[in-house]
Amino acid sequence: MPTLHWVGKDQVRNHHRDVTYRVLREQFTFSANESLPKNSLDNKIIHGDNLEALKSLLPEYEGKVKCVYIDPPYNTGNESWVYNDNVNDPRIKKWLGKVVGKENEDMSRQDKWLCMMYPRLKLLHRLLSEDGSIWVSIDDNAVGILRPVLDEIFGAGNFVSCVIWEKADSPRNSASQFSTDHDYILVYSKRPNWVPARLARTAESDSIYDNPDDDPNGSWIAGDPFANKPYSKGLFTITGPTGRTFSPPPGRFWRVSEEKLRALDADGRVWWGPTGDARPSIKRYLNEVGDLVPRTLWKKDVGSNRSSKNEMRAIFSGSSSFDTPKPSSLIGRILDIAADSDSIILDSYAGSGTTGHAVLKANAQDEGTRRFILIEMMDYAETLTAERIKRVANGYGEETKPVLGLGGGFTYYSLGEPLFVEYGNLNAAVGIEAIRTYVAWQEGIVEGAASSSAESQHRYWLGEANGLRVFFAYE
What's this model's pTM, rounded to 2 decimal places? Predict the structure, then answer.
């Protein structure tokens, strides 16, 4: 399989293994007003570098996240945006200098961006469940270099699709060349043969059905009677109601046998046109079709850049507080396809908190118990990311246009002390419970696993794994 190489790749290929485990320090807990509908409370918002935060999530969440959605910096070279697309944030530059070394001095912005993304994607792969999928928003500036990296980490055979989202609802006439009206969402699964959920039918999807002949079976659309492959008895000539005869065109075949086609006609399931002399079409009835297979072109029904900014202005009283938010309906579509009603959803580039908003909205619609984990390294993690979740949980809007709260809550964390200090020694400052949790995970002990043995009452007892009873003596 072709692979992509860049300056610094050799240094970051296994860097995720060297990232320090840090303890998540609880800062505060928020719950919506009790009068509001019930919603999930066991949600997390983490302020800190998402590389360290993802590593610190492994003991509790490795292999448990059903859906990952990320909207990373697009590598446009735009220095004015809060994320610093050119990867010139002082923290990222310091990390690159430490990990990559002298080669860092000769790196292009693409090199820096790939070095930033690679170890984070490796950790996201570990957190993803066996039946999970990852969805990555990106644009033309980086889709060409991101695709081979995702192929390498997730496996080219686990590429599912490239969704095209029409983000603009009107052309940008100020553009010097083309109006850029779309973004991409690359979709990968953890394992092959992943099957997305089907989508509920909508009024738009059903609008193509009609009933011009007052068929008692209801509305229908005309299906092509011909196929490209030969079926049993696939070549014959049939005579219509007006005496006109019909045969498949060269290179094509009847989709059903002559006997089957005549039986369908006798049952009123063949359409010969309004005057009875048109090519026969097999009716496909609306009441016989199921839910919709997801399509790769997503249009205005999942929101646009304009609708997402309007959404932010409504939540934050008239001013958009984030340059490039995604509409919650876009993330909602992803949840419909990729998450169950009790799934864990992770967004490690949380930004304005759209993913958390979408999770609470989905729970409110079907009484689900989905949970979100949001990670944001920028200083607005509390004032914007967490604040948005508070407002959509409690309700927002002016008196004339109030938006009912969705309920729910979250716990807000920061990254605490490293679990290990110099020479690989355990850091006593993190506390014994954090240490025990980490060691139990390393030993493969399933959280909450019970034991009937007398040893389970011992103060050093951790649990059972791989046929062993595990104790951890540490003072």
Answer: 0.85
